Amino acid sequence: MKRFALAAALMLAALPVLAEPVTISTARGPVTLPERPATLAVFDVAAADTLAALGVPVAGLPEKLYVDYLAPAATQIGTLFEPDLEALSTLAPDLIVVGARSAAQFEAVAQVAPTLDMSISADVVGDARARLAAYGTLFGKEAEAKALAAALNARIAQVQAAAKGKGDALIVLTNGPKISAYGRGSRFGWIHDTVGLPEAYPALKPEVHGDAISFEFIAEVDPDWLIVVDRGAATGAEGPSAL
User: What is the pLDDT of residue 209?
Assistant: First the structure.
């Protein structure tokens, strides 16, 4: 009888352990996955960057991410706006992540594999922390996620201290010869909210593409700090630049 019990115990030990479901928060509410995914396809730059920081391998990425260190050997699966469903199906991912620009493709790619929308709202830092924690839970990287969150909080505190009492700021985006300004509530407005730099021109509208402005406008506002995002430099565009 003892031999039978021992044999049964050994057989049970040899069986694969069933994975437990994992529930995480997403831009579309809580989602429960039956197990941790092994093969991952990502259609979002922020998600790919966070996963790389956590040490989570990504098998498929879109073309033209403009971030050289993000999984250069990953399989190309289309673009942020137009996923290559054939390449995606060939990759056979266990999970697909979309966000921001690719969120509109949620239903299309969800036909291939379970999909998460991990878009980040105007609350950039708050959502970044939430997404980091979610990825940590999903991939068993809780300790790494906590360490990254602590490093982020320390860096924010450092910048806040450096900016305190140092005047106001105007955030502009240059796109070739064009210039747009962004205030609170816009995609760059988190800089004012998080860093604590007051707006040099509080009347800006929270438009997706900002308010079109001129060099004369900048001179009239006369901000203490001019924070410039150069889209052309980020995307490798050639031609005239407002800078």
Answer: 80
Q: Are 133 and 145 in contact (CB under 8 A)?
A: yes
Residues 129, 183 within the same domain: no
Identify whether residues 146 and 209 lie together within a single domain: no
- Smallest CA-to-CA distance from 97 within 54, 144, 148 is with 54
pTM, 2 dp: 0.86
| pLDDT reading at 82 higher than 90 | yes
- Mean pLDDT value across residues 75-97: 97
Last residue of a domain, one of 102, 122, 151: 151
> 128 and 37, same structural domain?
yes
**Cα-based distances in Å from 57 to 28, 31, 53, 105:** 24, 21, 10, 22
Answer yes or no: do 29 and 92 share one domain.
Answer: yes
Residue type, 57: P
Q: Mean per-residue pLDDT for 198-221?
A: 92
